[in-house]
């Protein structure tokens, strides 16, 4: 990336009907303060700070120094990291838009993708300045703009999800930052030729492991401890032998256990999900949590002195409960670890000397073990993440590195950690200055501009003071740690005073006194180094111990003996067979080598810099502390950076965009210049009367020396743009008025034409209507005249007919009246007779009814009277308790009827028949239920009495299969109706298996054909599976040759899935002879029967220890030295309906199981 400000010329598509419009943009447009510090005028510390303040107050948190991005931590969310912003900065020139971290990320990504240049992004700054967030933004931007696809998205998700895991184990709350990274991280993201991510590699530097044992006031231990105790389930905490109360653990500080804005429980769930996405197996996650719990338990172990005969004190563990629980978590014998805390064995050649440890030494050993256990666990996590995210392809990759490391640190009390951190920053400053100057020089040579030497402070002398192999501070510290005799921090300081006293950047109390200078600010136990960022006072206390980083060999060997799955990987030096008497390398030597490798790596890549600054110590928004920002500007060397950038020419720009931007300042170049762009720029600068000393012409760019010249051109351009805007407005308004007038004129003509047409049309329609009316009236008069004539003729004819009809009618009616009168007279006589007969009948009916009523009344009265007489006669014979006896009699009769009815309504004798007769009366509910229960028990007993011994054994096996698989295995329901046959091969009768039958001495309980799954390709090979009372045998199906014979006591567990497949894994006891070739992964059609018989027979063979049956869709199988995960998924294979096994990678076999219909 070329230094200085480079404006560019871009095209944007838009407008109506796909019209094209050219839009020229630049960093100089609508600028708040100065967007690039190279253009700051005047340049001094006060103006630098004031420019940062001005931009910070307007929410402009990013500022450039050439190609370097300064990032201010806003301590709040800003709407500048949205997907819209990502698209805005995508494929845009670095200086085209306002300063942003996305611009640097896009420039680095496009250089890597298009120019095939490896990139690195160096993020520095003190704790709380936002380095970690900056690295996340860079990675999220690259993930957003690169390619898409299932595999690419998976890689991107794994790279992004590695951050929460490392933050949980490597970050902590400090007084400066609630999420401070306590380790340095460098990630190489690898891309293919298309720019799609393939994977990555993470390197970690100098984890602050001393924080595990002790935290300063107001700070916390690493996040994972608090997240585990807050977010894990009660069941998980019980397995880890932990309690949610932070106060029960000595390694956790209580004054800052909870942090505002941090939800430890939610963070723990996020970390578990991230570990799953990255690729951690469930047992690996459990192993990591067990080690975290062991560290907490280790901090609770306390010691007491115990006097010995020789007069020396020996340390003993006070309360062994925490020691016991820790040993159970790690699988260590309690006595072994207890002895390692009380004795130390020193080996020299062929001699071993055992010495006792006092209480202070025991506490040192305990803390050393805790720090080493946690730091090695963290290194294992990084290695494990690298295994998951590393690129699989073997082709050459493009690489983008992201470095997030400690910034320069100056505290009131600076120790070995600050010394190492500041040494790393000295090396980064050195490479920064070298690469910046080299970039400037290469551009000047490329453009044909004369290169002038730039005066700057070269911190190589400070780096040499620290890292020189002969007289460097680190070399002398290693020499002190390795030499025999009494070694203390004071002897180390004396050596420094002897060798470095004359160095111009080294100061101590003794070196000052030798020069007859008195400096009371310099204590006797301290030394001071003049770093590039300022003077730092270091206290030598703890330098030797922290550099030694010593872990007693007894503790390493005790850890190696643990049965925990990770301990042997974490403590390989504890292997008794590989005892190395050579002293391990010191912490300073290791870090120096790591920094050297990092510097060599960075020098092979194109660097991009992000300098992070925090505006205040209160972690609050809208507060800008000048003194704090000034302090960071100094030790980040930002002023030095600006001076290096401005040493030659402050501004450079290609001729074409320069001419496009400023061509309106000269009449000869406005509006279009027809010649070469360089000639146009020369004419432009000559017309603007710019002094020749203020600029230089390169081969493709114009170089301007002073920012004031650029600002003058910008002011003139701004004024000219205002004049051009006024002219454009005038022309536009005239065009708009003329267009409006012409439109009105055209509209008037059209309206008049339409009106005339409408008026003529209406007149024509009126005349036409009048004509039609006249025609209709004439035709009507003629028609009516003809109609009157026809009607008259018709009426004459109808009158004759009517008169004749009326005459005939009169004659007929007269005859009819005569006949009716005669008929009426006859009917009157009949009606009168009928009425008289009816009257007589009704009178007789009323008389008979009255007589019947009187007879009924007499009968009723007599009945009532007889009833009264009877009741009076028998009342003296009636008793008071007759009602109760009648009730009891009725109840007995009902129960007798109920029990007699059972004889004919009893259900069948089948135990599975659930029918029972209906309950007749509610008061018999209890007796009804009890009789049903007794009858069921009786018929079950009768049914069991019919069983033979063999049939009873079969049912017992079916019952055990139900207890193991019911509601757990989808295959179980289909096996219920199938009898357990046992010998499916008929091995006793089949002559093909006579040799195999003679080789098996015991009775064969089960013989079947199974498929042995091959790890290499997931395919199955047929094998004969034989089960006896003491072992199981696998033999070749064709030859009958025995392949493996395993005693049942060596079988520890059987693993199956929950689905309808026939796959199962036989897991053997570690260390046994049978386990040399690993576990067996088999499949069978009779899985339920095989595992049930194994479980019954194995329990008898193992003297009561049951074989564990693990039912899970994901389990591990040991193949020789490697563990492979077998994972079951839904969705059948392409051909067939059976389950199919397929190898996905070296550590995963995937079984596709058809979905249930």
Automatic annotation (TrEMBL):
Pfam families in alphabetical order: IQ, Myosin_head, Myosin_TH1
Record region (Actin-binding): 595-617
Binding site for ATP: 125-132
Single GO MF annotation: actin filament binding
Residues annotated as domain TH1: 969-1155
Keywords: Actin-binding, ATP-binding, Calmodulin-binding, Isopeptide bond, Motor protein, Myosin, Nucleotide-binding, Phosphoprotein, Repeat, Ubl conjugation
Gene Ontology CC terms, in alphabetical order: brush border; cell cortex; microvillus; myosin complex; plasma membrane
Location of this chain's protein in the cell: Cytoplasm, Cell cortex
Domain Myosin motor, first and last residues per copy: 32-718
GO biological process, one term: actin filament-based movement
Domain of life according to the entry: Eukaryota
CDD domains hit by this protein: IQCD (cd23767), MYSc_Myo1 (cd01378)
Family of the protein in this entry: Belongs to the TRAFAC class myosin-kinesin ATPase superfamily. Myosin family.
Free-text function comment from the UniProt entry: Motor protein that may participate in process critical to neuronal development and function such as cell migration, neurite outgrowth and vesicular transport.
Protein name: Unconventional myosin-Ib
Organism: Coregonus suidteri
Source species taxonomy: Eukaryota, Metazoa, Chordata, Craniata, Vertebrata
């Amino acid at each position: 990336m070329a230094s200085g400000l480079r404006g560019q010329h871009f095209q944007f598509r838009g407008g109506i009907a796909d019209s094209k419009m050219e839009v020229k943009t630049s960093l100089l447009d609508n600028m708040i303060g100065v967007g690039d510090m190279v253009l700051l005028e005047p340049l001094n510390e006060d103006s630098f700070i004031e420019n940062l303040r001005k931009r910070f107050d307007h929410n402009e948190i990013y500022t450039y120094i050439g190609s370097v991005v300064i990032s201010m931590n806003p301590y709040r969310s800003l709407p500048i990291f949205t997907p819209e912003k990502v698209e805005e900065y995508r494929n845009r020139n670095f200086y085209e838009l306002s300063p942003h971290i996305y611009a640097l990320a896009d420039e680095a990504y496009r250089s890597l993708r298009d120019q095939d240049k490896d990139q690195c992004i160096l993020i520095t700054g003190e704790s709380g300045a936002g380095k970690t967030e900056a690295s996340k933004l860079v990675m999220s931007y690259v993930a957003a703009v690169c390619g898409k696809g299932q595999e690419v998205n998976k890689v991107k998700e794994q790279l992004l999800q590695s951050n929460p895991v490392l933050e949980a184990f490597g970050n902590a709350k400090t007084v400066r930052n609630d999420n401070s990274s306590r380790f340095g991280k460098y990630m190489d993201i690898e891309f293919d030729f298309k720019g799609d991510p393939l994977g990555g590699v993470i390197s970690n530097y100098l984890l602050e492991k001393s924080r595990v044992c002790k935290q300063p006031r107001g700070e916390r231990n690493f996040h994972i401890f608090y997240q585990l105790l807050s977010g894990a389930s009660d069941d998980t905490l019980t397995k880890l032998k932990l309690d949610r109360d932070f106060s029960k653990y000595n390694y956790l500080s209580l004054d800052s256990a909870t942090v505002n804005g941090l939800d430890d429980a939610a963070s723990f769930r996020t970390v578990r999900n991230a570990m799953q996405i990255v690729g951690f197996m469930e047992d690996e996650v459990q192993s990591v949590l067990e080690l975290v719990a062991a560290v907490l338990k280790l901090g609770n172990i306390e010691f007491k002195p115990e006097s010995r005969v020789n007069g020396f004190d020996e340390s003993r563990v006070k309360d062994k409960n925490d020691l016991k629980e820790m040993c159970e978590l790690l699988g260590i014998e309690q006595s072994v670890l207890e002895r390692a805390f009380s004795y130390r064995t020193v080996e020299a050649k062929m001699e071993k000397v055992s010495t006792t440890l006092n209480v202070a030494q025991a506490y040192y050993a305990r803390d050393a073990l805790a720090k080493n256990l946690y730091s090695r666990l963290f290194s294992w996590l990084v290695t494990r993440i690298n295994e998951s995210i590393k690129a699989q392809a073997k082709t050459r990759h493009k690489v983008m590195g992201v470095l997030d490391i400690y910034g320069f640190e100056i505290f009131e009390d600076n120790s070995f950690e600050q010394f190492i951190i500041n040494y790393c920053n000295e090396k980064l400053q050195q490479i920064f200055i070298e690469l910046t100057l080299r970039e400037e020089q290469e551009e000047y040579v490329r453009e044909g501009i004369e290169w002038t030497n730039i005066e700057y402070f070269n911190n190589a002398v400070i780096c040499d003071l620290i890292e020189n192999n002969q007289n460097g501070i680190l070399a002398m510290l290693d020499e002190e740690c390795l030499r025999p005799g009494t070694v203390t921090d004071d002897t180390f300081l004396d050596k420094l005073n002897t060798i470095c006293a004359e160095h111009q950047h080294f100061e101590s109390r003794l070196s000052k006194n030798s020069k007859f200078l008195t400096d009371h600010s310099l204590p006797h136990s301290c030394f001071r180094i003049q770093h590039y960022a300022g003077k730092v006072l270091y206290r030598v206390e703890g330098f030797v111990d922290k550099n030694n980083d010593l872990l007693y060999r007894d503790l390493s060997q005790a850890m190696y003996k643990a049965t925990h799955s990770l301990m042997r990987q974490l403590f390989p030096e504890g292997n008794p067979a590989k005892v190395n008497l050579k002293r391990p390398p010191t912490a300073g030597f290791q870090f120096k080598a790591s920094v050297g490798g990092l510097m060599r790596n960075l020098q092979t890549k194109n660097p991009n810099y992000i300098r992070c600054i925090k505006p205040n110590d209160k972690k609050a928004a809208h507060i800008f502390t000048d003194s704090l920002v000034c302090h960071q500007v100094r030790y980040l060397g930002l002023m030095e950076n600006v001076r290096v950038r401005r040493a030659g020419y402050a501004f450079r720009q290609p001729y074409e965009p320069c001419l496009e931007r400023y061509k309106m300042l000269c009449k000869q170049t406005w509006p279009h210049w027809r010649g070469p762009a360089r000639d146009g720029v020369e004419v432009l600068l000559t017309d603007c009367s710019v002094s020749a000393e203020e600029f230089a012409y390169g081969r493709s760019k114009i170089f301007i020396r002073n920012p004031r010249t650029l600002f003058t051109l910008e002011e003139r351009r701004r004024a000219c743009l205002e004049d051009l805007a006024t002219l454009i407005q005038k022309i536009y308004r005239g065009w708009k008025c003329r267009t409006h007038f012409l439109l009105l004129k055209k509209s008037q003509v059209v309206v008049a034409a339409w009106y005339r047409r409408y008026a003529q049309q209406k007149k024509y329609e009126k005349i036409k209507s009048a004509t039609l009316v006249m025609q209709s009236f004439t035709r009507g008069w003629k028609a009516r005249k003809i109609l009157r004539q026809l009607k008259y003729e018709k009426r004459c004819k109808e009158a004759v007919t009517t008169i004749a009809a009326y005459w005939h009618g009169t004659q007929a009616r007269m005859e009819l009246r005569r006949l009716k009168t005669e008929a009426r007279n006859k009917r009157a006589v009949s009606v009168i007779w009928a009425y008289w007969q009816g009257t007589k009948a009704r009178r007789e009916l009323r008389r008979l009814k009255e007589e019947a009523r009187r007879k009924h009344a007499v009968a009723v009265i007599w009945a009532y009277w007889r009833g009264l007489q009877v009741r009076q006669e028998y009342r003296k014979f009636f008793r008071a308790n007759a009602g109760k006896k009648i009730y009891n009699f009725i109840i007995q009769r009902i129960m007798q009827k109920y029990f007699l009815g059972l004889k004919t309504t009893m259900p069948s004798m089948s135990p599975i028949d659930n029918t029972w007769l209906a309950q007749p009366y509610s008061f018999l509910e209890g007796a009804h239920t009890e009789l049903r229960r007794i009858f069921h028990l009786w018929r079950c007993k009768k049914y069991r009495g019919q069983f033979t011994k063999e049939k009873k054994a079969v049912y017992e096996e079916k019952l055990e299969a139900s207890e193991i698989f019911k509601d757990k295995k989808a295959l179980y329901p289909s096996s219920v109706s199938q009898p357990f046959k046992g010998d499916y091969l008929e091995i006793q009768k089949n002559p093909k298996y006579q040799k195999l039958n003679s080789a098996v001495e015991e009775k064969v309980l089960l013989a079947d054909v199974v498929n042995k799954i091959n790890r290499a390709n997931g395919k199955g090979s047929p094998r004969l599976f034989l089960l006896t009372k003491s072992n199981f045998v696998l033999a070749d199906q064709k030859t009958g040759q025995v392949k493996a014979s395993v005693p049942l006591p060596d079988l520890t567990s059987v693993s199956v899935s929950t689905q309808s497949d026939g796959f199962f894994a036989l897991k053997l006891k570690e260390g046994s002879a049978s386990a040399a070739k690993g576990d067996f992964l088999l499949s069978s059609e009779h899985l339920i029967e095989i595992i049930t018989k194994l479980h019954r027979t194995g329990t008898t063979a193992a003297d009561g220890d049951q074989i564990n049956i693990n039912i899970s869709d994901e389990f591990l199988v040991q193949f020789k030295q490697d563990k492979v995960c077998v994972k079951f998924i839904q969705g059948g294979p392409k051909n067939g309906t059976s389950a199919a096994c397929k190898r996905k990678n070296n550590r995963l076999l995937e079984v596709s199981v058809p979905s249930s219909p």
